């Protein structure tokens, strides 16, 4: 009743490999780009009409198609709600996490937006995987690590102080020693945000431990760049 059946059938047929060869090689990418709009129009009650098409696109051999979906998966999660997201989108999201950097960046840019929509228990599972974002296919892809630091500043609010100390603290310290100054600068802000998180939640012991670690690692560093990092962290704070 919402979309004429022939029009919906025409849209769903865009994932047919034969059409990509005879009509337009980019047709699957166009299909992926417009999918959140189609899902919004149909409503979550009609998601079953699009589910198979979405899964087909998510496993498309062209990385540009998967990249398009990765950039919009957080928008689709809002449309579908938490139950459908947990059942149908989380497996796709997990696949994108292990994909090429060109696809992973789409997930990374909206990591906070996606994680905040998950239940606490499901969200906590990703603490173990955030470390993987530090490693990229190309180490010169410093913008990837910059984006990770920016997202972590937002993500801090989603986890308790103990989880931040056990998992996110290590990532922050690694990024603070990055070879690229832009990454180090945003990471100093991340370190200060972590300290603010501890003290705002009365986790003073964790805060003090982290400060002592910063003093040992940077204040007493044998290299001037480490001591400079400590000065910048103090300046940001």
UniProtKB/TrEMBL annotation:
Keyword set, alphabetical order: Repeat
Gene Ontology cellular-component annotations: cytoplasm
Keyword Repeat part of the UniProt annotation: yes
Record-linked InterPro entries: ARM-like (IPR011989), ARM-type_fold (IPR016024), PP2A_Regulatory_Subunit_A (IPR051023)
One function term, GO molecular function aspect: protein phosphatase regulator activity
Keyword Hydrolase: no
Organism domain of life: Eukaryota
Protein name: PP4R1 phosphatase
Taxonomic placement: Eukaryota, Metazoa, Chordata, Craniata, Vertebrata
């Amino acid at each position: 009743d919402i979309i004429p059946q022939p029009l919906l059938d025409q849209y769903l047929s865009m994932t047919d490999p034969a059409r990509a060869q005879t009509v337009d090689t980019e047709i699957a990418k166009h299909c992926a780009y417009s999918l959140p709009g189609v899902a919004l129009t149909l409503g979550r009650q009609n998601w079953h009409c699009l589910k198979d098409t979405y899964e087909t696109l998510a496993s498309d051999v062209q990385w540009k198609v998967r990249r398009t979906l990765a950039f919009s998966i957080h928008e689709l999660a809002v449309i579908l709600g938490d139950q459908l997201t947990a059942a149908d989108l989380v497996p796709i999201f997990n696949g994108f996490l292990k994909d090429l950097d060109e696809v992973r960046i789409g997930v990374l840019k909206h990591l906070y937006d996606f994680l905040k929509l998950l239940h606490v228990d499901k969200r906590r599972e990703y603490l173990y995987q955030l470390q993987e974002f530090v490693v990229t296919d190309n180490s010169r892809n410093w913008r990837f690590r910059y984006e990770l630091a920016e997202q972590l500043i937002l993500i801090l609010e989603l986890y308790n102080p103990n989880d931040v100390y056990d998992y996110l603290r290590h990532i922050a310290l690694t990024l603070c020693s990055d070879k690229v100054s832009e990454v180090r600068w945003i990471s100093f802000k991340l370190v200060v945000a972590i300290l603010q998180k501890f003290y705002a939640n009365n986790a003073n012991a964790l805060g003090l431990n982290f400060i002592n670690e910063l003093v040992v690692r940077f204040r007493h560093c044998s290299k001037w760049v480490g001591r400079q990092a400590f000065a910048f962290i103090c300046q940001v704070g």
